[in-house]
Amino acid sequence: MTKTIGLICGSLRKNSYNRIIAQALIDMDDFIKFRWIEIKDLPLFNEDLELGGDPVTVSSFKSEIQDVDGIIIVSPEYNAGIPGVLKNALDWASRPSKDSALNRKPVGLIGATPGGLGTAFSQLQTRQILEAMQVHVLPFQKVLISQVHEKIDFDQKVLTDEKTKRYLQRYLQQFIHWIDHIPNLD
Ligand code: FNR
């Protein structure tokens, strides 16, 4: 059956390299349905805001998460960690903790940086945070894209590096296959 995959970009920057990489996923597969799940309009997390029910942006964000078969997060690394805007979004999605939109959701992690370590530290942190939320994170596989500025055509906003394209294609196939094989541990 056709899968619907949500894409969350951990950068709010207009010309984000990570957004270009996420767009490359959409462009490389006609059989998967992709939906952007935006995080830029979420308020800063504050438990007081939950008291009268979720703000509209938050409830739409949670519904968008619920409506997809899996999510791929494509995110930069800030100061060897997860960007604050992404952590903020995940905190919102984690509520209420016993019945969160993210509970048991299959998630894949991809990151790109002009630097040399491909967002490795940020991905480790994100994995740890998601596991605390009882999210299924694709095991073993990582997509760490370093020197990303050399792998894209910035004017056209497209990924051009063939090796990275092949790697992403393979990752996507593994992610989709894995979704149907996650053990039910309830
Ligand atoms: C960065 N950058 C960065 N890169 C990296 O590989 N490791 C890091 O720890 C950091 N730290 C960091 C902190 C802050 C506050 C900023 C603004 C940037 C550089 C970062 O990878 C670069 O700005 C990317 O272009 C951001 O991704 P997008 O917005 O292009 O997707």
What is the percent of helical residues?
Answer: 25-40%
Give the amount of beta strand, in percent. Answer: 15-25%
Morphology call: globular
String of helices and strands: EHEHEHEHEEEEH
CATH class: Alpha Beta
Largest sheet, strands/sense/barrel: 6 strands, parallel
Structural class designation = alpha/beta
Number of helices: 5
Ions, cofactors, ligands: which are bound?
ligand FNR
CATH topology: Rossmann fold
Overall residue-averaged pLDDT value: 96
The CATH homologous superfamily is called Flavodoxin domain
Catalogue the unreliable spans.
Answer: none
Computed Rg: 16 Å
The gist of it:
The chain is α/β, with parallel strands linked by helices and 186 residues long.
